[in-house]
Amino acid sequence: KTLLEEVERALAKGQIRPWFQPQLCTSTGAISGVEALARWLHPERGIVPPVEFLTALEEAGQLDRLSEVMLDHSLSALRRWDETGLAIPRVSVNFSDVELRNPRLVTRLKWELDRFGLPASRLGVEVLETVIADAPEGVVARNITALSQLGCQIDLDDFGTGHASITALRRFAVHRLKIDRSFVTRVDRDEEQRRMLAAVLGLADRLGLETVAEGVESVAEHALLAQLGCDHVQGFGIARPMPADQLADWARGYA
Ligand code: G
Ligand code: G
Ligand code: NA
Ligand code: MN
């Protein structure tokens, strides 16, 4: 069997599903949302990360099947958390450039939200910085604008690595910059790193964009990010990605 056949079968069997990693607001300490990250729960190989199956799906033009599963499970998890009284404000799902070029994307997301009775404000859409850098006009821009108008929060992923222009940031109705892990690592111990991070945070502030730091691994990094005015933090130092039930337990313990 090819990898693609295996992945397709895993999707059909429900072996691929989102795990969730929390994000915290640095000023209140509250959970500001969770990011959904695809995991293949392989019966023999254990947990398979997305790098090992995203490319196969993309090359076969099957990425929309993954995002359907991711959206479905993410929104249903959010509903369940709501029903058990947990305050998880939002779930953010990653969308690739292929999916962002789909002219039916907005209709599909709207339909999914309606199906779960959730307002668009509860859904975050993570878009790679490279996507808006490479596609300034056309269907990608229209999709992102429409999603933003619908009420979804647009997060620009891996910011600082993709050369998006300032004008692109404005034109694309982005709400938050997710500052790439490479700017965050060892920021408490490296003066040069701290200056770079402060510059990025300053840019976001001037543009009126919120910031999320990725890859926060220590209490010292967390504290420094808060001090520098970064709005949200996400990383192994707070919690690793985990299944929906475990996220609920974690959030209950955290509150
Ligand atoms: O979870 P992990 O660090 O292994 O994720 C690796 C990469 O895979 C990240 O860049 C993440 O954005 C991407 N990824 C995770 N889940 C999905 C998904 O459902 N769809 C897409 N397009 N990318 C995803
Ligand atoms: O590209 P994107 O930002 O979507 O990728 C998120 C990936 O980063 C996930 O696969 C997640 O497992 C990983 N990740 C999350 N927090 C940390 C962290 O603190 N350190 C490292 N090394 N990876 C992290
Ligand atoms: Na992401
Ligand atoms: Mn990222």
From TrEMBL:
Residues 1-255 form the EAL domain. This is Diguanylate cyclase, putative. The chain holds residues 245 to 499 of 515 of the full protein.
